[in-house]
Design brief:
Helix content is about 35%, strand content about 15%. It is an alpha+beta fold.
């Protein structure tokens, strides 16, 4: 994981979610509920109407359309990865 100050804020569940997000090939078992908890820990999440979420991590803000109890699709995983990596959140390589 990156050496951001926020690293200490991630518990084991958040770290496991981070690892699933950065898995190659892309995991098709990344639940929105888990990602939402991680994003709320490292950034700001605002639920909008009709299942839209405004997510800010670091200096980047993006809108996501995700059903509450569904897995993320491939593009959503890529978008979340980019936001997290840009803010210094990546799993350990070791």
């Amino acid at each position: 994981m990156g050496t951001t100050d926020g690293e200490q804020r991630l518990d084991g569940h958040h770290r496991a979610t981070l690892e699933r997000l950065f898995a190659h090939p892309t995991s098709h078992n990344v639940q929105w509920h888990d990602v939402l908890g991680l994003l709320e820990r490292v950034g700001t999440v605002e639920e909008r109407h009709e299942g839209r979420y405004s997510v800010t991590v670091g200096s980047e803000t993006q809108m996501f359309d995700v059903l509450r109890h569904r897995d993320l699709d491939d593009q959503q995983v890529v978008d979340v990865r980019r936001m997290l990596a840009g803010a210094g959140y990546e799993p350990d390589e070791a």
